[in-house]
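Human: Can I borrow your eye for a moment on a structure tokenisation matter? Separate attempts, laid side by side, tell us more than any discussion would. Could you pick a protein and write out its sequence and tokenised fold? No explanation is needed for now; the record alone will do.

Assistant:
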Amino acid sequence: MNIPFLDRWRKRQSGEPGLRLAAAFEADPDGVAELLSECELLRAQAEGAGLELDDSPESLAALDQLLPRWRDDPETLPWLGNDAGLYLGTVIVRTVPGAVWHVLPGGTPVVRLASGRELQVVAEGLDWAVQGAPELSQVYAEASEG
């Protein structure tokens, strides 16, 4: 089906979503960091369990103690894992000296520590959501050591 206005729209929206995120990060790193910290699904799940996420290391330990009811919902699981990783990254960036968000050229957000080491926080969050390990508080402890 040929729909001319869609073709023009697609041309304006060309480029991979990850490349657009990387470009947005270069233009406004604080704004992108604020978006990454929203973690709406994770915050809603935590609130439903009576836990308020305050971007503190202690909140990571509290998340580790939640009963993982989200594992019963295969549609929610990857989104929650993504949010858990972004929340982990937010806590690290806000509390570990020298830690900053960085977006890789493909669009993957990572946390770069003062040592130069990059943490794949989204992958860590997905592992936590699916398997329960590593615990978010453990990843935080390792990041804050070095």
About this structure: The two ends are 56 Å apart (CA to CA). The mean pLDDT is 88.
